Amino acid sequence: MKGKIERKLKLLARERRAVTAQARKKAFKKKNIVRCRYCGKGLTRQTATGDHVHPISMGGPNKVKNIVIACAPCNSRKGSMAAGTFKELLRKEQAQRKGR
Ligand SMILES: [Zn+2]
Questions:
Q1: Distance from the CA of 69 to the center of ligand 1, in angstroms?
Q2: Cα(35) to centroid of ligand 1, in Å?
């Protein structure tokens, strides 16, 4: 019966990609560059990724309004962390770099 579960997971992954693509399209509708929500880096359509603010793995909805534009490094570092936790981590790192 594992085939059934695999199909379901594939379907879910496809849905996630579709919603992420939709969110990116929306973000780039009027501009060519969008900033990463976490580090502020300028991103183009090629480099932008869609990040689920409230991670799906933590019960977040797979909806456009739950997606923000982030750069690939931030997106992969954030992983399944909540957005607030990740922002706090970045803030601490920035403070450390400034030698505070
Ligand atoms: Zn970033």
A1: 9
A2: 8
